[in-house]
# Entry
Amino acid sequence: MSGAPSGRTTTNATISIADLEQKARQIRRHIVTMTYKANSGHPGGSLSATDIVMALYFHVLRHNPKDPKWPDRDRFVLSKAHACPVLYAALAESGYFPVEELATFRQINSRLQGHAHIKTPGVEMSGGSLGQGLSFGIGAALAARLDGRTSRVYVLLGDGECDEGQVWEAAMAAPHFKLDNLCAIVDRNRIQNDRFTSEVMELEPIADKWRAFRWNVIEANGHSIADMLAAFDQAKQVKGRPTVIIAQTTKGKGVSFMENNPDFHGKAPNKDEYEKAMKELA
Amino acid sequence: MARTTASTRDTYGKTLLELGREDPNIVVLGGDLNKSVMTTYFAKEFPQRFFDCGAAEQNIISIAAGLASSGKTPFASTFAVFGTGRPFDQIRISVSQPHLNVKIVCTHAGISVGEDGVSAQGIEDLALMCALPGFNVVAPADAVETAQAVRVAAKTQGPFYIRLYRPATPVVCGPDYKFELGKAALMRDGLDATIIAYGIMVAAALDAAEDLTKQGLRCRVLNMSTLQPFDADAVVRAARETGAIVTAEEHYRRGGLASLVAQTLAEQSPAPQGVVALNGYAESGKADELMTKYGLTARAIERAVLETVGRKQQGLSCSA
# Structure
């Protein structure tokens, strides 16, 4: 199978930003429900990444839920694989598998593993240890170039994940290989597992760090779908080097008591919290 | 016994070049050691399909995974110490768990690395790689088997680790030799004891078996070039038919062949086992000096066979 027959892609240029924002609320409800039902998981970093993932799956990516391995597809690599609830919700809403399957998240015999794994239709990379996704994305981008495909590769990194040395091995390599079909996004929510990133390991000046590694750097509001779409569009125009979008976000975005709260990096809501969250996201 | 020698790493480099000409999907990744692991042959002819990632082994393995996920057959090559231990987590998560088609071929394994000393001597690599479910692990006996194993790896879907050497090693496989993944090769038959070896130690095992005929002992010699999937049947047959097993390897005594054979014997067919292997870390020195000092010789294998046959005759099944 090769080429891009018309109608194969789900990229929908006609979907409005208002529609995307409405859909984002639905994705957030899925995230909260999945982690509540599993009584575990990572809601905070899934909620912070929701608008970024929405922009990708419902506007930017060239993909086909009926044919997840379509060779000409764009790749989305979730390097922060603990945030898989947002990915599973986006995949289900795109039609990769039934929305009802989200209820099986983290349970035995489910395809929806606790951290993203390629056994799930539409998931490109098995993750779970931090720092590997950007390197994986380089491999996919090199393969696309070798095969003469126009596929683009998008890699979503956590900001805490940038503590890993391998991220910077990859950051050094991608401009060396002149990969302009590669776009990294840092979900800059300023909270990692234990505490605020500034307390655990200072990342600033994060944009300058990527600039020093010769990346094209775009800073954007990670909760503005319009901002993200503009950033992705700009990234496509840059030739000869990769782009990183530093997306400023809020951990737990959309649920008042989770917002900017390190407790909800890796903790599920209890019954009261669940009900309160669902009211806020109604 | 005098044997001709040939370089396993040079054979690897030349085989890779041939494969590159046959299959455009083969790509090669290196980590600033390409002149040593002989990927330079491939790099020179196919610069577009060769990626030097610098001294960054974690990045190399995950890039290889990304290439494999897009239909390429990546060969990632460096020294055994850097290619297994350093990126073990990347091998586990990016390659092994998703069972991707990544080939990790490492040279400079074992203490025969020599003068570079203990930091460069990979004596835990097989333990690490055999701990990964579904990972094919192959340690060819010589250059002849290396050429065949590399071809099988290229043509078989799934993750592979292949273990090669710095120095030229004795050639023990004849022109009719056929490597079969997951099968021990019978190098010499006998019914008094079985010596099981792989890699550079197969030659020593054959020399030991020859010497032991003077003492009236006919030894079977098995080349266990595939460590995973493991040919347990060959071990069980050897235990039942010869009643005494000696393993010989250039690796730490735990986690390699000795452990795999002991587990098989314990589970299926108890028999006395003697172990020739490394008891700890070595040091700098010439390869042959190190092999002698650390007991990886035909003489050491002979002593182990005599001791193990003695235990067989006394009816003792547990190893000393």
Q: What stands out?
A: Chain A touches chain B at residues 71, 77, 117-118, 124-129, 131-133, 135-144, 146-147, 165-166, 169-170, 172-173, 177 (CB under 8 Å). Residues 1-8 of chain A have pLDDT under 50 and may be disordered.
